[in-house]
Amino acid sequence: MLETIDIKATYASPAIRFEPQSKTLHIAGESYPENSFDFYAPVLKWLKAYLQQADELVLDIAVTYMNSSSTKCTFDIMDAMEDAFSRGVKTSIVWRYNRQNPRSYEMAEDFREEVTFPFEKEALN
Amino acid sequence: METVATIEECRLGHAETLQRAAAILAAAPGSIDLATEYRILAEGYRRLCHLLGEAAAAGGPGRTDGDAATAAGETAAPAVEAPGRMPLPLCMVCHKIHTDDKEWIGVEAFFARHADILFSHGICPDCVKQTYGRLGEQILARQNSLGEAHAPSRPKERAADDSLVQMRSVVERAIRENNPLASEVEKFFKRQAKLVRRFDKIVALSDSYQLQLREFNLRLELMAHTDPLTGVNNRGYFMELLNVELSRAIRHQRVLSVLLLDLDHFKSVNDTHGHAAGDEALRSVTRVIQASGLRKTDFFGRIGGEEFAIVLPETGLKSAAEVAERVRANLENAEIPVPGARLRVTASIGVSQCQAGDTEDSLLQRADHAMYLAKNGGRNRVCLGA
Questions:
Q1: pTM here?
Q2: Rounded CA gap, B133 and B141, in Å?
Q3: Chain A partners within 8 Å of B210 (Cβ)
């Protein structure tokens, strides 16, 4: 059985937690760790392994700020999901945007354009 | 390639126009038909504007800039044609220039009105971006006021990537020539295309996040300077502003006055009518001060619970006292919008004028002292300090 993932939030990095019951990977907080690639490497490794043996994954993402490298890592996560989707895994994303910040909705749209599987935008507040 | 040709055409056209203008300037007065020349120059200019618009549209840094330049060219054209219709101070018969003032005033007015077009060559990309940015803000503000969460979409396309254009031609050739590697090459092409798009997207997203931070910072800065209840300068920021203004006054040996306003019996307003009424009274003071004809250089803030201070640079005690009296009287007459009550408040105001060696504190202390004299003298009055 694959180990689950549970990373606590810090001021510069989001909380990342997998909920097996709902098959949901939650990412919430702000993301500008000193080294995003190091930070996201175990997440990506876990995700790829999980997607090899799972039939479903929801990514629930509520990140209000990302630096460029975190953005790159988020795209990597989405690519892994897209890859799984093409193999028949039921992948989807719930992207939580900030209603008070009009840019946030538009950025969600920028991310949505990169995937072909279901991508929902929901207001965070 | 088309763009290059157009720019070259522009350059030649421009050179021709300049030569023509130089020839006119060099020619003996009366030997040249100025009206005709003027018309030819105007026509040349109009054509250049048009070409410039086209060139910008074809090869400008972005489509929006190009469109803006074209639009600017189109707007400019009628004005540039106007010289042909403007009566020149030139006699149709003898071809001599009149010395009639009226004619020259007409010419002057024309130049003044069209200076932007006659002496400029379009709009620089920075200004276009700025204007677009402002438009964006306006749209944003409007949408915010409507409670809409959608921002205006930013331009997403950019000029085709060179490496992709090259690769595409290789892929097409490989397919045409039935090269066995064609499908591999095509795969690489698609991967490259994705990388390029991804790169652009990450950069654009990064910009958006940064912009978002900047907006938050601005908002924070504003919040740090502002009293949330009344929306005017808070004590901290007021003192900063006073520091700058006072140093300037002392350095240049100018006068400056301060009004210190304290609401009378404010506690009983709160006790009798509730805190909401008290808050409304404070907002009312703000409105009265704002409507009391302060100059642009004057400023004020809420510096305590029911205490406001107004700074009047370049103003002596006597004029400051007049302002204070106006504020006092307007406040006395202002009805505070409180449900179920006809509430009015009054204030005691102390005025002081800066002296050599003053600090913000010493200046405010004298105003404070005068304000207490006003309180002791029966309230709802203005007292002058030193």
A1: 0.55
A2: 12
A3: none
